[in-house]
Design brief:
The chain contains four helices and eight strands; from the N terminus they run E-E-H-E-E-E-E-E-E-H-H-H. It is of the alpha+beta class. The protein has a single domain, classed as Alpha-D-Glucose-1,6-Bisphosphate, Chain A, domain 4, CATH 3.30.530. Strands 1-2-8-7-6-5-4-3 form an eight-stranded antiparallel sheet, with helices on one face. The relative contact order is 0.21.
Length: 178
Amino acid sequence: MTVVIPHGTSETRDGGIHLLHFQLRLPHPVIRVWAAVATPEGLPTWLAAADVLEPRIGGAVTLLWLNADAQGRRTVEQGTVTAWDVEGVAEYTVSVHGRIRFHLEPFGPRGSADGTVVRFTNEFRGTDELRLDYLAGWHHHFELLADALDGHPMTAADWAQWTPGRRQELRDQYVSRP
């Protein structure tokens, strides 16, 4: 991985509503990053299989997380596409992770658009323990996104051998952060 993923931040609102924020600067054009975060072909290379993805506001989305827990269970989430602006915003509101939003903007030296800024938000209701789990989980998935964009996508065999070690390491870092 050539890109270092910065730690995400979080805020907690009344009623146990958590907002997680990540800002990534990826050295890939928007069209490539969009394909990774908003297409059934790109999502499984770093996050989840999009069993259903209707690319429009109000469209259905079903995400099957490809990494399993210690008991071998995979998370399946059904929901709705709640924002869609091609190559700009993809937002899914799903059953487990709540609202997940990818906002993409081009950036580059002297006005070129060689890179992409990803502003990511995850809004969900849960405990502080779940907040830490999600911060670490998203951080790890963004490392996988950077690898996929660099030509090293996760394959079915990679997902089958996935272990939670890196996610736990990141979670420990988030516990010790103010």
